[in-house]
Amino acid sequence: MSTKEKVLEEVLTEEQVGNNNEIVLYNDDVNTFDHVIETLMRVCKHTAEQAEQCSLLVHYKGKCTVKTGEYKELRPQCSQLLDAGLSAEII
């Protein structure tokens, strides 16, 4: 194993450990597409296209991971989604 391969392996392992939480958004029968899209753009800093794609996945698949990262960074974002009336949790 060369030095270059060993360093790359260590970097990949560190990234996987650091970002092990996700905010999952769930479908509901209450919120409009526009509200979900606007909220994802405001809270999760999604582009319009990202927010629209997530809203469609939530609608048709029932849920979608909308953000990944460390728990301490995701917690306030998940709280804002909940405050906006969306159904979400950190897993």
UniProtKB/TrEMBL annotation:
It holds the Pfam family ClpS. The keyword Membrane does not apply. The keyword Protease applies. Signal peptide: none annotated. One of its GO terms (biological process) is protein catabolic process. Residues 22-83 form the Adaptor protein ClpS core domain. One of its GO terms (molecular function) is peptidase activity. Keywords: Hydrolase, Protease. It comes from the Bacteria. This is Clp protease ClpS.
